[in-house]
Write a structure and sequence with these properties.
The protein is of the alpha/beta class and 373 residues long. Helix content is 35%, strand content 20%.
Length: 373
């Protein structure tokens, strides 16, 4: 199960993202001070989450939880989910005695409705188990409501697929869903996967990258249909037509636009796809160097970067992306680890630090880790 959470933290707390990522949980972090603003402006950004996780058990957490629960029902994400009904989980290693009366009622429950409290520890994967349990219950409740509202909800091979409503989505509203906020394109969308669904997509991906005759257009099509394989924290923009200095057009395979903090160029990435069969290194041992295929991809990415930075293209870039992007990260998805000398690959990657080299095996392993979670 892959899910996104909005993590609200006061700062100075140990980061759990690496551990959570291995379990399929991807966190967008905001401070207490910016949390409400981030939520109330989410309808104009692409922030879509399955839960709110507050990393502190204090009176401020209760106040914030109550603010979220009291938001107008029209405050919703771009997929129509209402913020006032999203799961809220407070994670804290311990509750100080001075905060106990502010947080809990006589039965030991959190005073704000439908707010869970958990102590993160090794036994519950530092809160990940509680988050996943709450989100799964929430998703099933949302799917049940979609069915009642007239959407077509199909269960296919471990995946819950949501289709167009019998009536316009803008006419529909329920406990969890506010139709006028739904900005998703018409058509069917996968809204939840169980382990069988993840396994199916894994098998499709592995079969694809194992084919000796697989083409770049086939890989492109797969990632367009399964963008979560590339990133859970970005929106994948395929084949954006970028202006070039000579008047021609450059078309990277994907531009990964961050869900939040879109004003920060370092959160964006220009990503190109190359074949899984391409060699990563040429030569052996101390003589090993990045292969000609990798170097060609790096030169192509730098060409994209140079044209993005050109001052004559600023307005056109802003019109395309909604942001005057100048300094994005660069990445290439290429090759397999297989018999690759990983130490030599890491050594050579340092000399090309401006470009992230990702292999198809890493994408595969990331999804496999979620299956085992």
């Amino acid at each position: 199960m892959t899910l996104r959470v909005l993590e609200i933290t006061p700062g100075g707390i140990a980061n759990l993202h690496e551990r959570w990522n291995r379990l399929g949980i991807y966190a967008t972090e905001v401070s207490f001070e910016n949390a409400v603003q981030t939520i109330t402006t989410a309808g104009t950004t692409e922030l879509v989450v399955d839960a709110v996780v507050i990393r502190q058990a204090t009176y401020a957490s209760i106040q914030l939880s109550d603010q979220i629960r009291s938001l107008p029902e029209t405050v919703a994400m771009i997929d129509g989910k209402k913020w006032c009904s999203v799961p809220i989980i407070i994670l804290a290693p311990a509750i100080l005695q001075r905060d106990r009366e502010d947080l809990l009622d006589e039965e030991g429950e959190v005073k704000v409705r439908d707010v869970a409290l958990a102590e993160p520890n090794d036994d519950n994967n530092y809160g990940a188990d509680q988050i996943k349990e709450n989100v799964e219950d929430y998703r099933l409740a949302v799917l049940s409501e979609f069915d009642n509202l007239g959407f077509i909800v199909k269960f296919e091979h471990g995946r819950y697929v949501l289709g167009p409503a019998l009536k316009s989505r803008h006419e529909l509203e329920g406990k969890y869903y506010f139709g006028p906020a739904d900005k998703r394109p018409e058509g069917f969308t996968t809204v939840h996967r169980d382990n069988f669904g993840i396994q199916l997509e894994l098998e499709q991906f592995e079969a694809l990258i194992n084919r000796p005759d697989v083409s770049e257009p086939q890989l492109q099509e797969f990632f367009e249909e399964h963008p979560h394989f590339l990133s859970a924290l970005h929106t994948s923009l395929p084949h954006v037509r970028l202006p070039a200095k000579n008047g021609s057009i450059l078309i990277p395979d994907f531009i990964l636009r961050p869900i939040v903090a879109q004003e920060r160029d370092s959160k964006w990435e220009v990503l190109d796809l190359k074949l899984p069969q391409e060699k990563l290194l040429a030569g052996k041992g101390s003589r090993a160097r990045l292969s000609s295929s990798v170097m060609k991809a790096i030169r192509q990415l730098r060409d994209y970067h140079e044209n993005i930075q050109h001052p004559d293209h600023a307005e056109q870039i802003e019109a395309l992306l909604g942001h005057r992007l100048k300094y994005p990260r660069l990445g290439v998805l290429i090759g397999r680890l297989g018999n690759t000398d990983v130490e030599a690959l890491e050594r050579e990657q340092q000399y090309e630090a401006g470009v992230r080299i990702v292999t198809y095996d890493e994408i595969l392993q990331q999804q496999q880790a979620q299956l085992g979670a």
